């Protein structure tokens, strides 16, 4: 076939053979390479467009505020958290929350009182200057959230008493238990039910819960 026309390929290469005949054939390799480059360029361009759009929508400059809650939202995905009002007091930590739970309507006063006593630190040890020996045990210190005393060897009170022994424990065991915030607050409630806030007299004065 001489000078054959191939309609699906615009670019043709004329080839001459030894026989003297010549024909045109499509440049498959060159056309394939050009098609590949064009497709790659198109894909890359689209990727850059979408990437730029994503950066724009997530940049701090494109934050929007929810018309209800005033909450920043990004990229048009608006999630609104409705503002709610509650009479429940807010708590700085779980210890405060538990004090409110145990003391109910007296919770606010007891949080003030125990904050004065220990700063709500379960590891607080106080009144070490009142410690002494009783029945072979060294006791008299105040431990934990509510600063509960382990007993008195007759140094502060005229009659010695051992709170650890009364609870079936050694002073060391009782002291360790009192460092547990739950046990300490629960135990303080039993003291409060018998003596009221006068059991923590000095801090009750400092916080204004008792007027002199």
Query: What's the domain count?
Result: 2
Order of helices and strands: EEHEEHHEEEEEEEHHHH
**How many extended strands?**
11
Q: Give the number of helices.
A: 7
Low-confidence stretches: 1-30, 55-87
Cα end-to-end separation: 123 Å
Reading off the top of the CATH hierarchy, the class of the largest domain is best stated as: Mainly Alpha
- Helices and strands: which structural class? alpha+beta
Strand content: 5-15%
Shape estimate: elongated
CATH topology value of the largest domain: Lysozyme
- The average pLDDT score comes to 74
CATH architectural label of the largest domain: Orthogonal Bundle
Largest sheet: 3 strands, antiparallel
Rg computed from alpha carbons, rounded to a whole number of angstroms: 42 Å
Helical proportion, percent range: 40-55%
Strand order of the largest sheet: 5-8-9
């Amino acid at each position: 076939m001489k000078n054959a026309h191939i309609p699906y390929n615009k670019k043709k290469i004329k080839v001459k053979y030894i026989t003297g005949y010549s024909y045109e054939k499509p440049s498959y390799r060159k056309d394939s390479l050009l098609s590949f480059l064009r497709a790659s360029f198109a894909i890359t361009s689209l990727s850059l467009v979408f990437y730029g759009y994503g950066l724009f929508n997530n940049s701090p400059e494109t934050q929007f505020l929810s018309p209800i809650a005033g909450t920043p939202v990004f990229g048009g995905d608006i999630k609104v958290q409705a503002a709610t009002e509650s009479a429940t007091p807010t708590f700085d930590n779980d210890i405060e929350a538990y004090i409110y739970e145990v003391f109910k309507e007296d919770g606010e006063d007891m949080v003030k009182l125990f904050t004065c006593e220990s700063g709500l630190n379960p590891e607080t040890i106080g009144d070490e200057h009142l410690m002494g020996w009783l029945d072979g045990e060294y006791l008299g210190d105040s431990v934990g959230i509510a600063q509960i005393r382990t007993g008195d060897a007759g140094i502060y009170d005229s009659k010695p008493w051992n709170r650890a022994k009364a609870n079936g424990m050694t002073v060391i065991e009782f002291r360790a238990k009192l460092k547990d915030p739950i046990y300490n607050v629960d135990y303080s409630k039993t003291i409060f039910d018998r003596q009221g806030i006068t059991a923590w007299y000095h801090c009750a004065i400092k916080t204004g819960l008792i007027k002199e």
